[in-house]
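Q: what does this look like with 1-deoxy-D-xylulose-5-phosphate bound?
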Amino acid sequence: MLSLYGEDIASRLLLGTAQYPSPSILAEAVRASGAGIVTVSLRRETAGGRTGGQFWELIRELGVRILPNTAGCHSVKEAVTTARMARDLFGTDWIKLEVIGHHDTLQPDVFGLVEAARILIEEGFKVFPYTTEDLVVAGRLLEAGCEVLMPWCAPIGSARGPVNPDALRSFRAEFPDIPLIVDAGLGRPSHAASVMELGFDAVLLNTAVAKAGDPAAMASAFAQAVEAGRRAFKAGPLEPRDMAVPSTPVIGKAVFE
Ligand SMILES: CC(=O)[C@@H](O)[C@H](O)COP(=O)(O)O
């Protein structure tokens, strides 16, 4: 079973809660996904002028673990302040840490990310850092005290799927014992299955479900894909080869004269 900061989590699919057409569709999608964890953007919900109380109530009623995030934060100070507010509001020391460094790609500011992670871990937070596939940065995050890493597979909201599978494969190989959750850029269930087949422990996604024609049906499709990818990984998939490998033995072949 997936274990994150000492807690067992039943599902390997984590779901974002932004951009759904309505709160009821969000609730349907979360239920259909079977997700045990949903991530919530404190900044987005507060700034969006939504009836905050109602939104938080809906999330609580879903009965899933809440992973607050610092989405939309572009500086260490902003991210750290948002994390502190989230801890007060949700009564959890879990935080998905995003420090955005680039406006167009929403690429993480990995320098700010490491700095913010250090500050928050000293304050007792359990940090889930949204990072790139950079192995050195990942090492620094672990040194800072992160026990989970969340590499992207493509820019947030792009739905492109794993654009650099070789880098993800290296990332998995470099950190065999660390829970690794692929976060952002997944567009289709097949993308989720493919990263799970590489041995990642879980995926987090939002846009592909929230913006689907039928979010609940798509959430369910992603859940099945995550499960299939995990089973395939555990079953030991074949490595691709350049050359053909005959499936029929050559010995015993009929010889015609
Ligand atoms: C919801 C969240 O926390 C983000 O990391 C992001 O929105 C996920 O990426 P996608 O929207 O591309 O799935």
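The two ends are 60 Å apart (CA to CA). The pocket of 1-deoxy-D-xylulose-5-phosphate is lined by residues 16, 18, 39, 69, 71, 96, 130, 156-157, 183-186, 205-208 (CB under 6 Å).
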